[in-house]
Amino acid sequence: MWREMGTRAPPPTRPLGGAAITLWPEHRLLLRRARIPSPATLRTAPAWEPLIGRRGGRSASSPVADWTPGLRAAPGLLGLACCALAQRKRRPAEGALLIGLDGRGGSDEGFGAGGLARAAAVAAADGNGTARRAHGTPRQGRRHLRLIGPGAGAQGARWAAAGAAAAPGEQRVGARRWGLGLGGQRKAGAARLLQRRYLGLPPARRKPPEEAAAGVSVLAEWNWRWSPLSVFPWFGLDIGGTLVKLVYFEPKDITAEEEEEEVESLKSIRKYLTSNVAYGSTGIRDVHLELKDLTLCGRKGNLHFIRFPTHDMPAFIQMGRDKNFSSLHTVFCATGGGAYKFEQDFRTIGDLQLCKLDELDCLVKGILYIDSVGFNGRSQCYYFENPADSEKCQKLPFDLKNPYPLLLVNIGSGVSILAVYSKDNYKRVTGTSLGGGTFFGLCCLLTGCTTFEEALEMASRGDSTKVDKLVRDIYGGDYERFGLPGWAVASSFGNMMSKEKREAVSKEDLARATLITITNNIGSIARMCALNENINQVIFVGNFLRINTIAMRLLAYALDYWSKGQLKALFSEHEGYFGAVGALLELLKIP
């Protein structure tokens, strides 16, 4: 989109701060793309103007407006726009900004403005004050884009970022003409020097930035709020012990201008995720759960839900590397134990930093958000009426308009139980190691099944009473004194002490008994927690309940029966994805 500008008359100038800054149409396009509210909010830093527009290793002492006709616009303005592209969500305090460019190769080979824009567009802060590096093509040589300035987050941390050079075929203009000076005289050490001496010390001890002049390409001042829009793509990841859950926001309101400027790696990722329902032999996109026409952070689009086994996580990281994901983001928000387990792989293989989030925080935020937006016009929550009667059982919507207090039972590989009193007030009450992972693991041992779906299918055909010892097997009927019905399980797998009964059971019976054992234990613990916390609404979530109607109906009946109708078991359509949704919401908050 950028062209060499030295052959045409400059457009009218407009005052910005104390200098007259010339805005070419390409500059205005870049500003629009960067979503800077008004160019009039930008101004150059007068004390640093001698450092702006360095050419051929020499400082330009003239005012900003007197730069060479080849540029005619302050690199500070251009740099601010490029920085905004890279860090749209950052809300900085007013302060200094350095864009330092250096590389290997002749200075006349430098970045064109298009290359600079592209480099900034793929840059991202890693939040800890260190610079990251990306590489151009062999023809271009190595290039760096360094963005260094005071941090803008709640902690005011320093930040730095780096991006890649212009793509092959991108219009490039000589560095001398643009005043960006990318030749060998631009030393990377200058940027590090300024970061260490000027930004890394308390205000009283700061030394003037002139010390780092040898490598400074652009110094300017920022004085605006960043747009509250993060750079696409938007992902949230929940890496569990058995399954990885991923949510992806697909923007549907992309303008023609945005689509034209969109980089190929972003197009490739979006096409791959949205045009397939299966990824390899194990990855699945749950199309029936897709949330359509969702407004998120001011953008309209669809929210996709994808899952795959945790043991395939290395392949996922490698795919991200192959699709050059790190050129779009350097930070991936993830929750679950796998966020810690796979952190090193993300860093070394995928060139990505994991922002590790608390899984219970993400779970609560995710479920409250999804319930607030609904399910494509339908209710997110539901319950079962007449759960014990296969013919009369009905799945009915439930309006969770008054969610608090709420007992949240998350059934994954293990089980965690939370008492939620408000969106910001919740606690973990207890948990158990006997969860979905226990059910699947025991089924693999007892039946030889290889998938969770196969285990559930076998359980649906089995008879657990051939495996479990019931109250009536001991008392000949009900134990009326303590109100125990004859059909209640007295001892899970109790009949397997008998050789004759072991020989009579099928694999399906064993799978059914395993499912009943795990579900009964979870229901019993949930009931006791609800009574102790004085909570009547209990919502069960987690991937153990995915396509697991048997367990859901059993939980619904058990809670209703043993509480004499005081407790209601609730379920959710997106049962296993709330942690990933919470991670996505946190991604959009990263300063």
From TrEMBL:
Protein name: pantothenate kinase
Protein's pathway: Cofactor biosynthesis; coenzyme A biosynthesis; CoA from (R)-pantothenate: step 1/5
Main location: cytoplasm
Species of the source: Equus caballus (Horse)
Similarity remark: Belongs to the type II pantothenate kinase family.
Cited InterPro entries: ATPase_NBD (IPR043129), Type_II_PanK (IPR004567)
Enzyme class, spelled out: transferase
Assembly notes: Homodimer.
One annotated GO biological process: regulation of fatty acid metabolic process
Assigned EC number: 2.7.1.33
TM region positions: none
Keyword entries, A-Z: ATP-binding, Coenzyme A biosynthesis, Cytoplasm, Kinase, Nucleotide-binding, Phosphoprotein, Transferase
GO cellular component terms listed in the entry, alphabetical order: cytosol; mitochondrial intermembrane space; nucleus
